[in-house]
Design brief:
mainly alpha, 10 helices, Integral membrane bound transporter domain-containing protein
Length: about 260
């Protein structure tokens, strides 16, 4: 699914789709992938990575075309599958006494409501992000609002969704501060790549334990990857990410409260 999302995003980029088209198509992808993830008990739950892949790639115009994007994504996904298989052969596997994964079964109505939430949240957040860009020309990357809107609504319980929304805001602002410190030093692209690897490792270590703390490391990863792809003034990058994340998390809280 991830490879398909990257290819769809690259196709929109190649066709020069505007921000409204990208937001709408990405919201449809969000709804469909969230339903599939829930139906098949995929982890992590929700559609955050699928939205990110579709909207981020779709927002970057002037790329190499959908075929190259598909090829790179497919090779990368295949490489990750091979790594997972090798890790299993080297001894990584279920610990003795580990309980089997619980599979949650949803009714058609529950899946419909689930998909609707994952369509409305990114669509509203992306629209607000697009409007904010017209009102404040310094802002950009409205898809960050979309990502921030779907991340908190993934947990199954109402209370956990609200908590995740608050964690998203607090953790992102802490991550922006971390990124501000790291980007304050002149860096070569290879140095940013090293930081991305280190921060990604730390984020994966803590994301299952404390979401807000993990975002302290995950947020700089997203910002540094953006800088590698399309460099821009660091202060504008940090401001944009903060504003769009607060917008998206606010939309998520509204959807949780009234959806």
């Amino acid at each position: 699914m991830f490879v398909v999302c990257v290819t769809i995003g690259a196709t929109m980029s190649w066709l020069g789709a505007n921000v409204w088209v990208v937001s709408f198509i990405s919201s449809l992808i969000s709804s469909a992938t969230a339903v599939v993830a829930a139906k098949c008990s995929l982890k992590p739950a929700g559609s955050i990575f699928f939205v990110f892949a579709t909207a981020a790639v779709g927002s970057m115009h002037g790329g190499s075309g959908p075929f190259i994007a598909f090829l790179v994504a497919a090779v990368t996904a295949g490489f990750c599958v091979v790594l997972r298989a090798l890790a299993h052969l080297l001894g990584e596997g279920p610990l003795p006494g580990t309980l089997p994964m619980t599979v949650q079964h949803f009714t058609v109505r529950e899946l419909g409501g689930h998909g609707l939430r994952f369509f409305i949240a990114p669509l509203v957040a992306g629209s607000l992000g697009a409007v904010s860009m017209t009102m404040v020309p310094e802002l950009s990357h409205s898809y960050w609002a979309m990502v921030a809107s779907v991340a908190p609504i993934s947990p199954p319980r109402y209370r956990d969704r609200l908590t995740r929304s608050v964690h998203r805001i607090i953790g992102t602002l802490a991550g922006v501060a971390t990124a501000a410190f790291l980007l304050s030093f002149p860096s070569q692209p290879w140095q940013l790549v090293v930081w991305v690897i280190i921060l990604q490792f730390l984020g994966e270590m803590y994301v299952g334990r404390n979401y807000a703390f993990a975002l302290t490391f995950i947020t700089p990863v997203a910002l540094m990857m953006t800088q590698l792809a399309h460099p821009m003034p660091a202060d504008m990058l940090l401001l944009t990410h903060s504003v769009e994340t607060v917008l998206g998390a606010g939309v998520a809280m509204f959807v949780v409260a009234f959806g």
